[in-house]
Amino acid sequence: MNTIVNSRIDEKVLYEKLDSGLKIFFMPKPGFSKKYAVFSTNYGSIDNNFIPIGEEENLVVPEGIAHFLEHKLFEEEDEALFEKFSRLGASVNAFTNFNQTSYLFSTTDNFYESLELLVKFVQSPYLTDENVEKEKGIISQEIKMYDDDPGWRVFFNCLRSMYVNHPIRIDIAGTVESINTITKELLYKAYNTFYNPSNMVLFIIGDLSFEKIIEVVKSSEKKFEKKEENIKRIYTDEPKEINEKFIEEKMVTSTPLFYIGFKDSDLNLMGKDAVKKDLITNIILDLLFSPSSLFYNELYNEGLITSNFGAYFTGKRTYGHSLVIGESHKPKIVYEKVLNLIDKRGEEVLKLEDFNRIKNKNLGNFLMGLNSIEFIANNFVDLYFDDFIILDYLDVMEEIQYNDILKRFKNHFTRGNVVLSIINPI
């Protein structure tokens, strides 16, 4: 057993790697009544081109297969898993995003029994031709529902405008056409490649015994040969240039919706470097577009935006983008004003005193987040797959200097990498 300690925030994480290759992390929270576990694989919707374990040729799978597989793992031959967790007093859920698939539960009682159930069902897929075919209809309805959602559509239109080849431009659930080509055999190939224990992590937090956790997981793990594998993912080269400047559609909505996207070119970062870039960029977006900013209040007072206006940066090793989001009866005017804003010198729009205020606010928010087991668990896994441990987050945040902000503003926010997506009312 290993221990990672950060005495400044009085937190520690216990760690053990099992013979199967599975990594288990545990953060003790004495006195907390709630317990939380998240079992995740480093596998998301963008991983649709890879070399299956045991093979030599790459395989391009249908769009949406990671999300489809998440749905199918909840299928059991005898009884619905939700009912099994419910009887134990636990609330279970799962999600698939661009980069990972996670299965999680929270409870106050019967934690170890719930943990045993979690480990067993994630490692025991029950796939038949019949239940795969049935799932296609269910997910098709989900896809159609999102296709009719203006907020979802304006977001993915923005991604398609920014990215030429990268699979992040594809809806996480895929398309009705793509999921209809999914077979039991393809699902097993994806499962056996990406649900290898060496590609997974189990994070647990609460007032619990780590020795008991290890004992339960070892006894619940599926007993088959799964040696550690170096998964070969294949991504088509993505140019630095954007795909198209502007995309516009009409849908049923009361007010036009818009996304302004800035495509990132500072890629292939991991660990501390990736986290620092993320923090720097989000501080800039906070300085420029939060309700406390001069720009926000100017737009709001002119009636150009509503309170549903904001911005955030998200990025991983192979992609990244900043998004400015809102609703406006004059979205193109908002867009032009954003362009005029980024044309200015960094020192003019990013004041040192505002930077210090936002940085201190973020430090405080992180420390407050350490009181939320959900905040810790979900961020731990996300950062872990970026080769970073959440206990070091505060130290990286404190390292950020004003000059880091100015440099990133100049390089990332340019007219050459910006796109506009609009959904207008019919």
Automatic annotation (TrEMBL):
Residues 181-361 form the Peptidase M16 C-terminal domain. GO terms for molecular function: metal ion binding. InterPro entries: Metalloenz_LuxS/M16, MPP/UQCRC_Complex, Pept_M16_N, Peptidase_M16_C. SUPFAM superfamilies: LuxS/MPP-like metallohydrolase (SSF63411). Residues 63-175 form the Peptidase M16 N-terminal domain. This is Insulinase family protein. It comes from Paratissierella segnis.
